[in-house]
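Example 3.2
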Amino acid sequence: MSYSPRPAPLSLLASILISCAAAAGVLLPSVASAQTAVPAPAPSPAAAAKNESWLYAGSDIPRDTAWQFGVLPNGLRYAVRNNGVPPGQVSIRVRMDVGSMFENPKELGFAHLLEHLTFRGSEHIPDGEAKRIWQRFGVTFGSDSNAQTTPTQTVYQLDLPSVNAATLDESMKLLAGMVREPRISDAAVTAERGVVMSELRESDGPQKRIADITNAHLFAGQLLGKRPPIGTVASLAAASAPAVQAFHDRWYRPERAVVVIVGDGDPAEFARLIAKYYGDWRGDGPPPAQPDFGKPDPKAPVAKVVVEPNQPLALTLAMIRPWVKRVDTVENTRRLYLEFIAQALVNRRLENRARAGGSYLVATVEQQYLSRSADVTMAQIVPLDNWKAALADVRGVIADAVTTPPSQADIDREANEIEAFLAKELENARNEPGSRLADDMVRAVDINETVTSPQGQVDMFKAIRASATPKVMLATSKAIFGAPVTRVVLTTPTPTPGGDAALVAALAAPAKIRDDRLATAAVDMSQLPAIGKPGTLVSTGSLPGLRAERLEFANGVTALVSNNRVEPGKVRVNVRFGTGNRSVAADAPNLLWTGDYALMASGIGPWGQNELDQLTNGRQIQMNFSIDDDAFEIAAESKPADLADQMKLIAGKLAFPRWDAAPVDRLRVGYLTGYDLNDATPNAVLDRNMRGWLANDDARWAAPDKAQIAALTPAAFRAFWEPRLASGPIEVQLFGDLSTVDYKKILAETLGALPARPTIAPPAGQTVAFAKHNVTPVVAYHRGETGQAAAMTAWPTSGGRAAPRDAQGLDVLAAIFNDRLFDRLRAEQGASYGPAVDSHWPTGFEGSGGYLLVGSLLAPKDVDRFYGIARDIAADLVARPVSADELARNAGPIREQIARASTGNVYWMFLLEGATRDPRVAAAALSVEQDISGITPADIQRLAREYLVPARQWSLAILPKGMTLADAAALDRAVAAPGGR
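Structure, written as tokens:
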């Protein structure tokens, strides 16, 4: 059974995000099947047995019969299937069984470097031309075309939209040529080495140091501890074309390849193309021996203290077992599900302690089978101040789990969550995108597992659940929390007394059992106070051009309802109320930054977080809060059977908000705990401050300082949010499978039953200012690595509903700008791993708030060069119209992305926010594709002339603390000088 990716357990928190500490939830296997638009012809029994043996050999897992498998005479394996989601798309994956653990000590980073070289082109394609060819096919670089290198594999990814026979054939030819015969010249190696060095530089810093030290400590004696995919500066600097070519020749062989194709086409044709372009591939010489990845070393040190200034306290406790290769059977699946339930039981108890106030801010456990190297159960802990107490408390919860069986009620609570997830996957199987199915297959191959259908998952779990008794779960807990090797890492901003020895002693102390199990409370929906008499529906109608119904109730609530079967068994809900960012003035203090976590976590009526978890256990009921410019939003993904209670809870939150203090206190502590990370890297500085800087320090987007965070109290939180929760207007969006519910009655009894709500009148002059023009860039500083910097430049544009075609045109202009910046800054000079250009056109503030932002992470020496390139590109876009080919290459992928997205409800819900009150919204939504298709070179030049005005341009540089722009320029001159480096 193939599991979906989980967060990497060894990368410590880059920031303290309270949202990660929400109620213990379900992170489960992705089912690997969707209904096929055209059923694949069934192979003969003999052919099926032969072809499927390579994935299902020895397995009794129910087959997903939509897949067809094959093995070419040269040993290359493939898996193909038809899938019509999204229509016209074909997803191709080429998995090579080689990653960073296949490198020798002189080749560190070569697998990843080769991935970059492969995507530059092949011996038969001019350097860099492959990207342009695929752009002409509507492919977006970096999302539709991408690659990934891990310790165990390298995967090439291509998602082709609007495929026809010619583009599919050409794409298969290009990709096969690149994998088989990449252009590994001295010039290409030099260029991509610069890009990878930029990637290495941008990822460098305390987080990488902590991760590297943690990996090396936890996996002592194993390649996993000393083979990071990125490589090292020394190994990359020494990389030569012959050495990389030798690595390719050794590992890139047909018997190490798996080609996966899923899409809107005939699987037989997919198989024919695989044979056509890979069938004559031959390996060079005898196959290499498989590396020995190693086993956990029980003699290695147990504890490691990592001192990193300005980093929060963090603990990693790992129970490590050797990885065992298993045949993926039903019994193996049973073991995996039971292990997952055991983890969920402990995570819920840990979260219960954190919510109630304890020694840690966040603590979670996760068991993983890592890189065919180790079977690890990892506890990640963020202590509040006393790391010894936090470690003891978490060990105490684990000790309880391995000593006393859980109750059947506790087991059922976690099993209910799994069952609900699997039922949801089954209901939505026909909407499973081909790209996810392809990724699931690649993942299954990598971890030696199989795939099954959504129905197969549901059926297996039903039987597995029946076996999850308290006795069985106790044995499972003992298995995943016991290990021959236990190691611990403490990250601390200052040296801890006793160092490693103190950590060893804390781990050696007997664990004292902590009973943090949840008490079962008698909760049901009847305990929610009556919202009011059902509201009166005063008008119904439709919006021109849309298959959606507009409803209006006597209390002023409006609703836009789309009853469709795009996602069977699913209903998407979005309740928009109040005036969002517009509810506060640009210069007024506010607590907008507190709402994302604490507002929903503070409870509803008679219920706090734990009661709400119990009330919604095993059901599709959510409460996700966000802030838009013109409204606050509570969104959910529900199902028809749960919709009535879903809407009761949302209405209850607005009518009977609860104001528990614990979530607010936890939010404050979390922000303060992670505060010193805010300037640890250039990226951290940008993430925290950029939106506020672009808005000329508008308080609605400016990040709170430490004093503001420390001053947060539950009383202040309530005073700010209570009137906003009570404010109007209310607009509801219901999109999905509504054929079995009376949605008018549900709305009338919930939001329609609320009393009329006052609107918080937006302060006068509601516009958004833009950063003041400067000639010399503003300089901000980070406290990270001296080799890291960032450069940004931006121009104000506009916003609102008056010119939707210009909003689309600026997206295309941004794509063209980005393409040129990529070619010059990355492909030619290797100065940046990922330059980016973004057009932001908000609709909540008419005529203001928009900008076009150009930026990149860089070395300090390249900052001035970045500004020069950006100026050149902007000036050229103003002076000359773009070519028809350049316009098509950049507008085409945007148009394809929109075409794919427009087949789903999420796209239309986003575009139609506010449509029940402003007719311009629906008109703009309906014209998006036409607007994109109608953009001309003259439009691009007009927009460039209107907005890329040097007199309004604003620029910013993020430099290492103590460095000036003059210092950075001097570094560039030193490198450019003869003999410079």
